[in-house]
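re: ur question from the group chat, yeah i did fold both. here u go
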Amino acid sequence: MEIPAARLAAGVMANPPALLTRSRGAADLRFKLREGATDFDRLYQSGCLRVLMPASEPGFSPDAIVMNTSGGLTGGDEISLDCHWQSGTSAALCSQAAEKIYRSTGADVQISNRLNVRDGANAEWLPQETIIFDRARMRRSFEVDVAHGARFLAVESLVFGRTAMGEEVTSGFVRDCWRIRIAGVLVYADAFQISGAIATKLDRAAIGGFARAFGTILLVAENLSALIDDLRATFAAALGRAAVSQWNGILAARFLAPDGEVLKHDIALALNVIRAGRPLPRAWRC
Protein backbone atom coordinates (compact mmCIF):
# COMPACT_ATOMS: atom_id res chain seq x y z
CA MET A 1 0.00 0.00 0.00
CA GLU A 2 1.33 3.42 -0.94
CA ILE A 3 1.89 5.76 2.02
CA PRO A 4 0.75 9.37 1.45
CA ALA A 5 3.64 11.84 1.34
CA ALA A 6 2.25 13.88 4.25
CA ARG A 7 2.05 10.81 6.51
CA LEU A 8 5.54 9.71 5.50
CA ALA A 9 6.97 13.15 6.26
CA ALA A 10 5.21 13.19 9.64
CA GLY A 11 6.73 9.82 10.48
CA VAL A 12 10.24 11.02 9.58
CA MET A 13 9.88 14.06 11.82
CA ALA A 14 8.48 12.02 14.72
CA ASN A 15 11.14 9.27 14.61
CA PRO A 16 14.30 10.64 12.96
CA PRO A 17 16.87 8.44 14.76
CA ALA A 18 15.34 5.25 13.38
CA LEU A 19 15.95 6.44 9.81
CA LEU A 20 19.50 7.71 10.27
CA THR A 21 22.53 5.53 9.52
CA ARG A 22 25.45 6.19 11.84
CA SER A 23 29.07 6.01 10.71
CA ARG A 24 31.22 3.40 12.42
CA GLY A 25 34.90 2.93 11.72
CA ALA A 26 37.83 1.06 13.26
CA ALA A 27 41.46 0.52 12.30
CA ASP A 28 44.18 -1.53 13.99
CA LEU A 29 47.67 -1.36 12.49
CA ARG A 30 51.15 -2.41 13.50
CA PHE A 31 54.45 -1.41 11.97
CA LYS A 32 57.40 -3.81 11.83
CA LEU A 33 60.87 -3.92 10.33
CA ARG A 34 61.16 -5.94 7.12
CA GLU A 35 64.63 -6.14 5.55
CA GLY A 36 65.62 -2.95 7.35
CA ALA A 37 62.57 -0.94 6.24
CA THR A 38 59.31 -0.16 8.05
CA ASP A 39 56.25 -1.97 6.74
CA PHE A 40 52.81 -3.08 7.90
CA ASP A 41 52.84 -6.09 10.20
CA ARG A 42 49.09 -6.09 10.74
CA LEU A 43 46.32 -4.04 9.21
CA TYR A 44 42.68 -4.39 10.18
CA GLN A 45 40.13 -1.86 8.97
CA SER A 46 36.36 -1.74 9.02
CA GLY A 47 33.50 0.63 8.36
CA CYS A 48 34.42 4.12 7.25
CA LEU A 49 38.14 3.99 8.21
CA ARG A 50 40.79 3.02 5.67
CA VAL A 51 44.59 3.09 5.96
CA LEU A 52 47.04 3.24 3.06
CA MET A 53 50.83 3.35 2.89
CA PRO A 54 51.93 5.08 -0.34
CA ALA A 55 55.46 4.61 -1.62
CA SER A 56 57.76 6.73 0.54
CA GLU A 57 60.04 9.41 -0.81
CA PRO A 58 63.67 8.24 -1.25
CA GLY A 59 65.59 8.46 2.00
CA PHE A 60 62.53 9.12 4.20
CA SER A 61 60.38 7.07 6.54
CA PRO A 62 56.98 6.00 5.20
CA ASP A 63 53.74 7.87 5.81
CA ALA A 64 50.60 5.88 6.57
CA ILE A 65 47.45 7.74 5.52
CA VAL A 66 44.18 7.37 7.46
CA MET A 67 41.02 8.12 5.49
CA ASN A 68 37.48 8.60 6.74
CA THR A 69 35.35 7.60 3.76
CA SER A 70 32.18 9.01 5.32
CA GLY A 71 33.40 12.54 4.53
CA GLY A 72 32.84 13.81 8.07
CA LEU A 73 31.29 12.92 11.41
CA THR A 74 28.10 13.91 13.17
CA GLY A 75 26.21 13.05 16.36
CA GLY A 76 26.25 9.33 17.16
CA ASP A 77 29.16 8.45 14.85
CA GLU A 78 32.01 6.44 16.37
CA ILE A 79 35.55 5.79 15.14
CA SER A 80 38.54 4.20 16.86
CA LEU A 81 42.16 3.69 15.87
CA ASP A 82 44.89 1.53 17.43
CA CYS A 83 48.49 1.81 16.21
CA HIS A 84 51.61 0.00 17.39
CA TRP A 85 55.18 0.87 16.37
CA GLN A 86 57.42 -2.14 17.01
CA SER A 87 61.05 -1.75 18.11
CA GLY A 88 63.22 0.14 15.62
CA THR A 89 60.41 1.14 13.27
CA SER A 90 59.95 4.66 11.93
CA ALA A 91 56.70 5.91 10.40
CA ALA A 92 54.32 8.86 10.43
CA LEU A 93 50.57 8.39 10.73
CA CYS A 94 48.72 11.15 8.88
CA SER A 95 45.19 11.94 7.71
CA GLN A 96 44.19 12.40 4.10
CA ALA A 97 42.36 15.65 4.85
CA ALA A 98 40.96 17.73 7.68
CA GLU A 99 38.41 15.88 9.80
CA LYS A 100 35.01 17.61 9.90
CA ILE A 101 32.64 17.43 12.86
CA TYR A 102 29.19 18.49 11.72
CA ARG A 103 26.09 19.71 13.53
CA SER A 104 24.52 17.19 15.89
CA THR A 105 20.87 16.69 16.82
CA GLY A 106 21.96 15.78 20.35
CA ALA A 107 24.35 12.81 20.42
CA ASP A 108 28.14 13.11 20.59
CA VAL A 109 30.72 12.04 18.03
CA GLN A 110 32.98 9.51 19.79
CA ILE A 111 36.65 9.31 18.69
CA SER A 112 39.16 7.02 20.40
CA ASN A 113 42.88 6.76 19.58
CA ARG A 114 45.33 4.37 21.27
CA LEU A 115 49.03 4.49 20.33
CA ASN A 116 51.88 2.27 21.51
CA VAL A 117 55.55 3.05 20.74
CA ARG A 118 58.23 0.48 21.54
CA ASP A 119 61.93 1.04 22.31
CA GLY A 120 64.01 2.50 19.51
CA ALA A 121 60.95 3.39 17.44
CA ASN A 122 60.34 6.79 15.87
CA ALA A 123 56.58 7.43 15.83
CA GLU A 124 54.83 10.50 14.46
CA TRP A 125 51.14 11.32 14.79
CA LEU A 126 50.55 14.07 12.21
CA PRO A 127 46.87 14.38 11.29
CA GLN A 128 45.54 17.54 9.70
CA GLU A 129 43.21 19.82 11.62
CA THR A 130 39.79 18.93 13.01
CA ILE A 131 37.15 21.46 11.95
CA ILE A 132 34.27 22.00 14.38
CA PHE A 133 31.02 23.24 12.83
CA ASP A 134 28.24 25.12 14.58
CA ARG A 135 26.26 22.95 17.04
CA ALA A 136 28.68 20.05 16.68
CA ARG A 137 29.32 17.70 19.61
CA MET A 138 32.56 15.70 19.98
CA ARG A 139 34.27 13.58 22.62
CA ARG A 140 37.81 12.51 21.73
CA SER A 141 40.43 10.60 23.71
CA PHE A 142 44.11 9.73 23.21
CA GLU A 143 45.96 7.05 25.16
CA VAL A 144 49.67 6.89 24.32
CA ASP A 145 52.31 4.57 25.82
CA VAL A 146 55.94 5.31 24.91
CA ALA A 147 58.84 3.03 25.85
CA HIS A 148 62.15 4.34 27.16
CA GLY A 149 64.46 5.10 24.25
CA ALA A 150 61.60 5.74 21.81
CA ARG A 151 60.73 9.00 20.10
CA PHE A 152 57.13 10.18 19.79
CA LEU A 153 55.91 13.34 18.04
CA ALA A 154 52.24 14.34 18.02
CA VAL A 155 50.29 17.23 16.52
CA GLU A 156 46.65 18.05 17.18
CA SER A 157 44.71 21.14 16.13
CA LEU A 158 41.13 22.32 16.41
CA VAL A 159 39.52 24.92 14.15
CA PHE A 160 36.17 26.39 15.20
CA GLY A 161 34.41 27.22 11.93
CA ARG A 162 35.83 28.19 8.57
CA THR A 163 36.32 31.92 9.05
CA ALA A 164 37.04 32.49 5.34
CA MET A 165 33.45 31.37 4.67
CA GLY A 166 32.02 33.53 7.45
CA GLU A 167 31.21 30.57 9.70
CA GLU A 168 30.88 31.02 13.45
CA VAL A 169 30.49 28.31 16.09
CA THR A 170 27.90 29.90 18.36
CA SER A 171 27.20 26.73 20.35
CA GLY A 172 28.30 23.12 20.68
CA PHE A 173 30.34 20.76 22.84
CA VAL A 174 33.98 19.61 22.57
CA ARG A 175 35.90 17.46 25.04
CA ASP A 176 39.46 16.42 24.14
CA CYS A 177 41.46 14.27 26.58
CA TRP A 178 45.13 13.22 26.35
CA ARG A 179 47.06 10.73 28.47
CA ILE A 180 50.74 9.96 27.73
CA ARG A 181 52.71 7.35 29.64
CA ILE A 182 56.43 6.68 29.44
CA ALA A 183 57.17 3.03 30.30
CA GLY A 184 53.73 2.80 31.86
CA VAL A 185 54.12 5.89 34.08
CA LEU A 186 51.66 8.72 33.49
CA VAL A 187 53.65 11.87 32.63
CA TYR A 188 51.11 13.98 30.75
CA ALA A 189 47.38 14.43 31.36
CA ASP A 190 45.40 17.13 29.63
CA ALA A 191 41.64 17.60 29.31
CA PHE A 192 40.12 20.42 27.29
CA GLN A 193 36.39 21.06 27.33
CA ILE A 194 34.30 23.88 25.93
CA SER A 195 30.55 24.03 25.51
CA GLY A 196 27.61 26.39 25.34
CA ALA A 197 28.30 29.76 23.74
CA ILE A 198 31.66 28.72 22.24
CA ALA A 199 32.38 31.84 20.16
CA THR A 200 31.69 34.09 23.14
CA LYS A 201 33.99 32.05 25.35
CA LEU A 202 36.79 31.99 22.76
CA ASP A 203 36.68 35.78 22.69
CA ARG A 204 37.64 35.94 26.37
CA ALA A 205 41.29 36.80 26.99
CA ALA A 206 41.77 33.98 29.49
CA ILE A 207 40.54 31.35 27.02
CA GLY A 208 41.23 32.27 23.41
CA GLY A 209 41.70 36.01 23.06
CA PHE A 210 39.44 36.03 19.96
CA ALA A 211 41.26 33.00 18.48
CA ARG A 212 39.26 30.54 16.39
CA ALA A 213 41.97 27.88 16.05
CA PHE A 214 44.44 26.34 18.43
CA GLY A 215 46.93 23.50 18.35
CA THR A 216 49.42 21.50 20.37
CA ILE A 217 52.68 19.78 19.53
CA LEU A 218 53.98 17.15 21.96
CA LEU A 219 57.39 15.54 21.73
CA VAL A 220 58.86 12.70 23.79
CA ALA A 221 62.56 12.36 22.95
CA GLU A 222 66.07 12.79 24.25
CA ASN A 223 67.86 16.17 24.47
CA LEU A 224 64.63 18.17 24.50
CA SER A 225 66.28 21.22 26.05
CA ALA A 226 68.36 21.69 22.90
CA LEU A 227 65.17 22.43 20.93
CA ILE A 228 63.67 25.04 23.23
CA ASP A 229 65.80 28.00 22.14
CA ASP A 230 65.51 27.09 18.45
CA LEU A 231 61.73 26.89 18.69
CA ARG A 232 61.42 30.19 20.56
CA ALA A 233 63.58 31.86 17.92
CA THR A 234 61.39 30.37 15.18
CA PHE A 235 58.22 31.64 16.85
CA ALA A 236 59.35 35.19 16.08
CA ALA A 237 58.02 34.48 12.57
CA ALA A 238 54.70 33.09 13.82
CA LEU A 239 51.56 34.83 12.53
CA GLY A 240 49.57 33.87 15.62
CA ARG A 241 50.63 33.25 19.21
CA ALA A 242 52.98 30.40 20.13
CA ALA A 243 54.93 29.25 23.19
CA VAL A 244 56.93 26.18 24.21
CA SER A 245 57.94 24.54 27.49
CA GLN A 246 59.42 21.28 28.79
CA TRP A 247 58.77 19.04 31.81
CA ASN A 248 58.48 15.35 32.74
CA GLY A 249 60.44 14.31 29.65
CA ILE A 250 57.94 16.01 27.32
CA LEU A 251 58.22 19.12 25.16
CA ALA A 252 54.93 20.92 24.60
CA ALA A 253 54.26 23.78 22.18
CA ARG A 254 50.91 25.60 22.16
CA PHE A 255 49.40 27.73 19.40
CA LEU A 256 46.53 30.22 19.14
CA ALA A 257 45.50 31.64 15.76
CA PRO A 258 42.64 33.60 14.20
CA ASP A 259 41.97 30.84 11.63
CA GLY A 260 43.13 27.46 10.37
CA GLU A 261 45.54 28.80 7.75
CA VAL A 262 47.52 30.84 10.27
CA LEU A 263 47.54 27.88 12.66
CA LYS A 264 48.88 25.53 9.98
CA HIS A 265 51.59 28.04 9.05
CA ASP A 266 52.79 28.34 12.64
CA ILE A 267 52.69 24.59 13.31
CA ALA A 268 54.70 24.01 10.13
CA LEU A 269 57.38 26.41 11.40
CA ALA A 270 57.75 24.34 14.57
CA LEU A 271 57.69 21.00 12.78
CA ASN A 272 60.47 22.16 10.47
CA VAL A 273 62.67 22.65 13.54
CA ILE A 274 61.61 19.48 15.38
CA ARG A 275 61.88 17.29 12.25
CA ALA A 276 65.27 18.82 11.37
CA GLY A 277 64.12 20.20 8.03
CA ARG A 278 62.54 16.98 6.75
CA PRO A 279 59.57 17.84 4.53
CA LEU A 280 56.07 17.53 5.91
CA PRO A 281 54.08 14.47 4.81
CA ARG A 282 52.71 14.78 1.30
CA ALA A 283 49.16 14.89 2.64
CA TRP A 284 50.03 18.23 4.27
CA ARG A 285 51.41 19.62 1.02
CA CYS A 286 48.44 18.78 -1.23
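okk and heres the other one u asked abt
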Amino acid sequence: MRAVYLAALVAGAWIATAWLTGVARNYALRRALLDIPNERSSHQVPTPRGGGIAIACVMAAGMALLGFGGLLHSDIVWALVGGGAMVAGIGWLDDHRHVAPGWRALVHLLAALWALYWLGDFTATPRGNTLSGWSSLHIALAALAIVWLVNLYNFMDGIDGLAGIEAATAGVGGAALLSLAGAPGLAMVMLLMAASCAGFLWWNWPPAKVFMGDIGSGLLGYCFAVVALAGEGAGALPAGVWLLLLAVFVLDASYTLVRRVLAGERWYTGHRSHAYQRLVQLGYSHRRVSLGAAGINLLVLFPAAALSMLYPASLPASLVIAAVAGWLAWRGVQRRYHNANATTAN
Protein backbone atom coordinates (compact mmCIF):
# COMPACT_ATOMS: atom_id res chain seq x y z
CA MET A 1 0.00 0.00 0.00
CA ARG A 2 2.83 2.40 0.83
CA ALA A 3 4.40 1.79 -2.62
CA VAL A 4 1.10 2.59 -4.34
CA TYR A 5 0.67 5.71 -2.22
CA LEU A 6 4.20 6.83 -3.05
CA ALA A 7 3.82 6.16 -6.79
CA ALA A 8 0.60 8.18 -6.86
CA LEU A 9 2.25 11.01 -4.92
CA VAL A 10 5.26 11.19 -7.26
CA ALA A 11 3.18 11.00 -10.45
CA GLY A 12 0.70 13.53 -9.09
CA ALA A 13 3.49 15.92 -8.10
CA TRP A 14 5.02 15.75 -11.58
CA ILE A 15 1.72 16.38 -13.36
CA ALA A 16 0.51 19.06 -10.94
CA THR A 17 3.78 21.00 -11.08
CA ALA A 18 3.90 20.87 -14.87
CA TRP A 19 0.33 22.21 -15.04
CA LEU A 20 0.77 24.86 -12.35
CA THR A 21 4.00 26.10 -13.92
CA GLY A 22 2.06 26.84 -17.08
CA VAL A 23 -0.48 28.77 -15.00
CA ALA A 24 2.31 30.67 -13.26
CA ARG A 25 3.90 31.50 -16.61
CA ASN A 26 0.65 32.97 -17.92
CA TYR A 27 0.30 35.01 -14.72
CA ALA A 28 3.85 36.34 -15.08
CA LEU A 29 3.22 37.33 -18.70
CA ARG A 30 0.02 39.18 -17.74
CA ARG A 31 1.80 41.02 -14.92
CA ALA A 32 4.93 41.65 -17.03
CA LEU A 33 7.10 39.82 -14.50
CA LEU A 34 10.00 39.39 -16.89
CA ASP A 35 13.73 38.95 -16.53
CA ILE A 36 15.12 41.43 -19.04
CA PRO A 37 18.58 40.47 -20.36
CA ASN A 38 21.43 42.68 -19.16
CA GLU A 39 25.20 42.48 -18.77
CA ARG A 40 24.81 40.06 -15.84
CA SER A 41 22.36 37.73 -17.61
CA SER A 42 22.97 34.38 -19.28
CA HIS A 43 19.80 34.52 -21.39
CA GLN A 44 19.11 36.47 -24.56
CA VAL A 45 15.35 37.17 -24.55
CA PRO A 46 12.93 38.52 -21.90
CA THR A 47 11.62 35.51 -19.95
CA PRO A 48 8.85 35.28 -17.34
CA ARG A 49 9.96 34.51 -13.79
CA GLY A 50 8.34 33.17 -10.64
CA GLY A 51 7.46 29.72 -11.99
CA GLY A 52 8.86 28.20 -8.79
CA ILE A 53 5.54 28.95 -7.09
CA ALA A 54 4.30 25.74 -8.69
CA ILE A 55 7.04 23.77 -6.92
CA ALA A 56 6.20 25.52 -3.64
CA CYS A 57 2.48 24.77 -3.84
CA VAL A 58 2.90 21.14 -4.85
CA MET A 59 5.55 20.42 -2.25
CA ALA A 60 3.50 22.01 0.53
CA ALA A 61 0.44 19.99 -0.45
CA GLY A 62 2.49 16.81 -0.83
CA MET A 63 4.14 17.15 2.56
CA ALA A 64 0.76 17.81 4.17
CA LEU A 65 -0.54 14.60 2.59
CA LEU A 66 2.49 12.67 3.83
CA GLY A 67 1.89 14.00 7.33
CA PHE A 68 -1.84 13.28 7.18
CA GLY A 69 -1.13 9.74 6.00
CA GLY A 70 1.27 9.13 8.87
CA LEU A 71 4.25 8.75 6.51
CA LEU A 72 6.08 11.88 7.71
CA HIS A 73 6.54 13.03 11.29
CA SER A 74 4.38 16.08 12.04
CA ASP A 75 7.36 18.05 13.37
CA ILE A 76 9.09 17.65 10.01
CA VAL A 77 5.96 18.82 8.22
CA TRP A 78 5.84 21.95 10.39
CA ALA A 79 9.56 22.60 9.93
CA LEU A 80 9.44 22.28 6.15
CA VAL A 81 6.08 23.87 5.40
CA GLY A 82 6.25 26.70 7.94
CA GLY A 83 9.80 27.82 7.25
CA GLY A 84 9.41 27.03 3.56
CA ALA A 85 6.45 29.41 3.42
CA MET A 86 8.62 32.19 4.87
CA VAL A 87 11.43 31.61 2.36
CA ALA A 88 9.05 31.21 -0.57
CA GLY A 89 7.01 34.24 0.53
CA ILE A 90 9.96 36.63 0.61
CA GLY A 91 11.12 35.15 -2.69
CA TRP A 92 7.69 35.77 -4.22
CA LEU A 93 7.86 39.40 -3.09
CA ASP A 94 11.36 39.75 -4.51
CA ASP A 95 10.18 38.31 -7.82
CA HIS A 96 7.52 41.03 -7.96
CA ARG A 97 9.56 43.93 -6.60
CA HIS A 98 13.05 44.28 -5.23
CA VAL A 99 13.46 43.39 -1.55
CA ALA A 100 16.56 44.69 0.23
CA PRO A 101 19.16 41.97 0.97
CA GLY A 102 18.95 42.69 4.70
CA TRP A 103 15.22 41.96 4.86
CA ARG A 104 15.67 38.76 2.84
CA ALA A 105 18.44 37.63 5.17
CA LEU A 106 16.29 38.35 8.22
CA VAL A 107 13.41 36.26 6.90
CA HIS A 108 15.80 33.45 5.98
CA LEU A 109 17.22 33.50 9.49
CA LEU A 110 13.74 33.39 11.04
CA ALA A 111 12.88 30.43 8.80
CA ALA A 112 16.07 28.67 9.93
CA LEU A 113 15.26 29.22 13.60
CA TRP A 114 11.71 28.00 12.97
CA ALA A 115 13.08 24.79 11.46
CA LEU A 116 15.51 24.22 14.32
CA TYR A 117 12.73 24.73 16.86
CA TRP A 118 10.66 21.93 15.32
CA LEU A 119 13.64 19.69 14.67
CA GLY A 120 14.62 19.96 18.32
CA ASP A 121 11.84 17.57 19.33
CA PHE A 122 11.98 15.36 16.25
CA THR A 123 12.62 11.63 16.59
CA ALA A 124 12.40 9.80 13.26
CA THR A 125 13.51 6.35 14.44
CA PRO A 126 13.82 4.55 17.78
CA ARG A 127 17.58 5.12 17.67
CA GLY A 128 17.13 8.78 16.78
CA ASN A 129 19.25 11.49 18.37
CA THR A 130 17.27 14.74 18.50
CA LEU A 131 18.76 18.17 18.00
CA SER A 132 17.63 19.13 21.51
CA GLY A 133 21.03 18.02 22.85
CA TRP A 134 22.96 20.38 20.58
CA SER A 135 24.98 23.23 22.08
CA SER A 136 24.28 26.88 21.34
CA LEU A 137 27.25 26.88 18.97
CA HIS A 138 25.81 23.93 17.05
CA ILE A 139 22.44 25.64 16.79
CA ALA A 140 24.04 28.87 15.54
CA LEU A 141 26.11 27.01 12.95
CA ALA A 142 23.07 25.03 11.83
CA ALA A 143 21.03 28.24 11.39
CA LEU A 144 23.83 29.81 9.35
CA ALA A 145 24.08 26.65 7.25
CA ILE A 146 20.38 26.82 6.42
CA VAL A 147 20.63 30.51 5.49
CA TRP A 148 23.71 29.84 3.37
CA LEU A 149 22.12 26.95 1.48
CA VAL A 150 19.01 29.06 0.77
CA ASN A 151 21.14 31.80 -0.77
CA LEU A 152 23.61 29.41 -2.36
CA TYR A 153 20.83 27.77 -4.34
CA ASN A 154 19.61 31.20 -5.41
CA PHE A 155 23.11 32.12 -6.63
CA MET A 156 23.33 28.93 -8.68
CA ASP A 157 19.99 29.41 -10.43
CA GLY A 158 21.40 31.31 -13.38
CA ILE A 159 20.98 29.21 -16.53
CA ASP A 160 18.17 27.16 -18.02
CA GLY A 161 17.49 23.85 -16.35
CA LEU A 162 20.39 23.84 -13.87
CA ALA A 163 18.59 24.40 -10.56
CA GLY A 164 15.80 22.00 -11.48
CA ILE A 165 18.01 19.16 -12.64
CA GLU A 166 20.29 19.58 -9.61
CA ALA A 167 17.32 19.18 -7.26
CA ALA A 168 15.93 16.26 -9.26
CA THR A 169 19.17 14.26 -9.36
CA ALA A 170 20.42 15.10 -5.86
CA GLY A 171 16.90 14.54 -4.55
CA VAL A 172 16.67 11.04 -6.03
CA GLY A 173 20.13 10.19 -4.74
CA GLY A 174 19.31 11.50 -1.29
CA ALA A 175 16.01 9.62 -1.26
CA ALA A 176 17.80 6.34 -2.01
CA LEU A 177 20.31 6.86 0.80
CA LEU A 178 17.66 7.97 3.30
CA SER A 179 15.56 4.93 2.48
CA LEU A 180 18.54 2.64 3.06
CA ALA A 181 19.29 4.49 6.30
CA GLY A 182 15.82 3.81 7.68
CA ALA A 183 14.26 7.27 7.22
CA PRO A 184 11.44 6.62 4.70
CA GLY A 185 9.54 9.81 5.53
CA LEU A 186 12.51 12.03 4.67
CA ALA A 187 13.14 9.91 1.58
CA MET A 188 9.59 10.65 0.42
CA VAL A 189 10.18 14.38 0.86
CA MET A 190 13.18 14.14 -1.45
CA LEU A 191 11.22 12.13 -4.02
CA LEU A 192 8.45 14.71 -3.83
CA MET A 193 11.00 17.44 -4.51
CA ALA A 194 12.55 15.51 -7.40
CA ALA A 195 9.16 14.86 -9.00
CA SER A 196 8.10 18.50 -8.61
CA CYS A 197 11.33 19.74 -10.19
CA ALA A 198 10.95 17.25 -13.03
CA GLY A 199 7.52 18.71 -13.72
CA PHE A 200 8.96 22.22 -13.63
CA LEU A 201 11.70 21.24 -16.08
CA TRP A 202 9.00 20.64 -18.70
CA TRP A 203 8.93 24.45 -18.96
CA ASN A 204 12.43 25.36 -17.78
CA TRP A 205 14.52 23.00 -19.91
CA PRO A 206 16.62 24.92 -22.49
CA PRO A 207 15.43 27.07 -24.03
CA ALA A 208 13.49 28.03 -20.90
CA LYS A 209 9.95 29.35 -21.24
CA VAL A 210 9.84 30.43 -17.59
CA PHE A 211 12.37 30.91 -14.80
CA MET A 212 12.11 29.52 -11.29
CA GLY A 213 12.67 32.84 -9.56
CA ASP A 214 13.67 33.39 -5.94
CA ILE A 215 10.51 31.72 -4.71
CA GLY A 216 11.64 28.38 -6.12
CA SER A 217 15.41 28.47 -5.72
CA GLY A 218 15.32 29.63 -2.11
CA LEU A 219 12.74 27.02 -1.19
CA LEU A 220 14.79 24.17 -2.69
CA GLY A 221 17.88 25.24 -0.77
CA TYR A 222 15.83 25.44 2.43
CA CYS A 223 14.33 21.98 1.98
CA PHE A 224 17.71 20.40 1.30
CA ALA A 225 19.13 22.01 4.45
CA VAL A 226 16.23 20.98 6.70
CA VAL A 227 16.17 17.39 5.45
CA ALA A 228 19.96 17.16 5.92
CA LEU A 229 19.68 18.35 9.52
CA ALA A 230 16.68 16.12 10.20
CA GLY A 231 18.57 13.10 8.90
CA GLU A 232 21.54 14.03 11.07
CA GLY A 233 19.36 14.51 14.13
CA ALA A 234 17.62 11.19 13.56
CA GLY A 235 20.91 9.34 13.34
CA ALA A 236 20.00 8.24 9.82
CA LEU A 237 22.26 10.10 7.37
CA PRO A 238 25.15 12.40 8.32
CA ALA A 239 24.71 15.95 7.09
CA GLY A 240 28.17 15.74 5.55
CA VAL A 241 26.87 13.24 3.00
CA TRP A 242 24.68 16.03 1.61
CA LEU A 243 27.79 18.12 1.02
CA LEU A 244 28.84 15.40 -1.39
CA LEU A 245 25.43 15.08 -3.05
CA LEU A 246 25.24 18.86 -3.54
CA ALA A 247 28.96 19.43 -4.16
CA VAL A 248 28.46 20.93 -7.65
CA PHE A 249 26.41 23.78 -6.18
CA VAL A 250 28.15 24.06 -2.80
CA LEU A 251 31.67 24.29 -4.19
CA ASP A 252 30.98 26.57 -7.15
CA ALA A 253 28.99 29.00 -5.01
CA SER A 254 31.45 28.92 -2.09
CA TYR A 255 34.63 29.35 -4.13
CA THR A 256 33.05 32.13 -6.15
CA LEU A 257 31.84 33.90 -3.00
CA VAL A 258 35.29 33.75 -1.40
CA ARG A 259 36.91 35.11 -4.56
CA ARG A 260 34.46 38.01 -4.73
CA VAL A 261 34.86 38.89 -1.05
CA LEU A 262 38.67 38.82 -1.32
CA ALA A 263 38.44 41.02 -4.42
CA GLY A 264 36.37 43.57 -2.51
CA GLU A 265 33.30 43.11 -4.71
CA ARG A 266 29.70 43.49 -3.53
CA TRP A 267 29.17 39.76 -3.19
CA TYR A 268 25.39 39.99 -2.74
CA THR A 269 24.79 41.67 -6.11
CA GLY A 270 24.14 39.91 -9.41
CA HIS A 271 27.11 38.75 -11.49
CA ARG A 272 28.23 36.16 -14.05
CA SER A 273 31.41 34.78 -12.51
CA HIS A 274 30.34 31.34 -11.28
CA ALA A 275 32.08 28.46 -13.05
CA TYR A 276 28.82 27.32 -14.66
CA GLN A 277 28.29 30.84 -16.03
CA ARG A 278 31.86 30.98 -17.31
CA LEU A 279 31.25 27.73 -19.20
CA VAL A 280 28.27 29.31 -20.95
CA GLN A 281 30.39 32.36 -21.78
CA LEU A 282 33.00 30.01 -23.24
CA GLY A 283 30.42 28.68 -25.68
CA TYR A 284 28.90 25.69 -23.90
CA SER A 285 25.11 25.56 -24.18
CA HIS A 286 22.80 25.74 -21.18
CA ARG A 287 21.68 22.21 -22.01
CA ARG A 288 25.24 20.85 -22.03
CA VAL A 289 26.20 22.51 -18.73
CA SER A 290 23.02 21.35 -16.98
CA LEU A 291 23.40 17.78 -18.28
CA GLY A 292 27.04 17.86 -17.22
CA ALA A 293 26.02 18.75 -13.66
CA ALA A 294 23.45 15.95 -13.66
CA GLY A 295 26.05 13.48 -14.91
CA ILE A 296 28.50 14.45 -12.16
CA ASN A 297 25.75 14.06 -9.57
CA LEU A 298 24.68 10.61 -10.73
CA LEU A 299 27.99 9.07 -11.80
CA VAL A 300 30.45 10.59 -9.33
CA LEU A 301 28.86 12.25 -6.31
CA PHE A 302 26.10 9.73 -5.61
CA PRO A 303 28.53 6.76 -5.54
CA ALA A 304 30.87 8.79 -3.30
CA ALA A 305 28.00 9.66 -0.97
CA ALA A 306 26.80 6.05 -0.86
CA LEU A 307 30.31 4.84 -0.02
CA SER A 308 30.59 7.44 2.74
CA MET A 309 27.25 6.33 4.19
CA LEU A 310 28.21 2.66 4.16
CA TYR A 311 31.69 3.41 5.56
CA PRO A 312 31.32 6.52 7.76
CA ALA A 313 35.04 6.66 8.51
CA SER A 314 35.66 7.52 4.86
CA LEU A 315 33.43 10.62 4.90
CA PRO A 316 36.11 13.17 5.94
CA ALA A 317 38.48 11.93 3.24
CA SER A 318 35.68 12.00 0.65
CA LEU A 319 34.86 15.59 1.56
CA VAL A 320 38.50 16.65 1.26
CA ILE A 321 38.88 14.91 -2.10
CA ALA A 322 35.67 16.52 -3.37
CA ALA A 323 36.78 19.97 -2.17
CA VAL A 324 40.19 19.68 -3.83
CA ALA A 325 38.80 18.24 -7.06
CA GLY A 326 36.14 20.93 -7.08
CA TRP A 327 38.73 23.64 -6.56
CA LEU A 328 40.87 22.37 -9.42
CA ALA A 329 37.85 22.22 -11.73
CA TRP A 330 36.58 25.65 -10.64
CA ARG A 331 40.01 27.22 -11.03
CA GLY A 332 40.53 25.56 -14.38
CA VAL A 333 37.29 26.99 -15.77
CA GLN A 334 38.10 30.46 -14.43
CA ARG A 335 41.59 30.41 -15.96
CA ARG A 336 40.28 29.16 -19.27
CA TYR A 337 37.73 32.01 -19.34
CA HIS A 338 40.31 34.67 -18.54
CA ASN A 339 42.78 33.24 -21.06
CA ALA A 340 40.09 33.26 -23.75
CA ASN A 341 39.25 36.89 -22.95
CA ALA A 342 42.91 37.87 -23.04
CA THR A 343 43.34 36.19 -26.44
CA THR A 344 40.26 37.98 -27.78
CA ALA A 345 41.48 41.33 -26.47
CA ASN A 346 44.82 40.85 -28.23
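fwiw on the second one: The longest helix spans residues 315-345. The chain has one domain: 2-345. idk if thats what u expected
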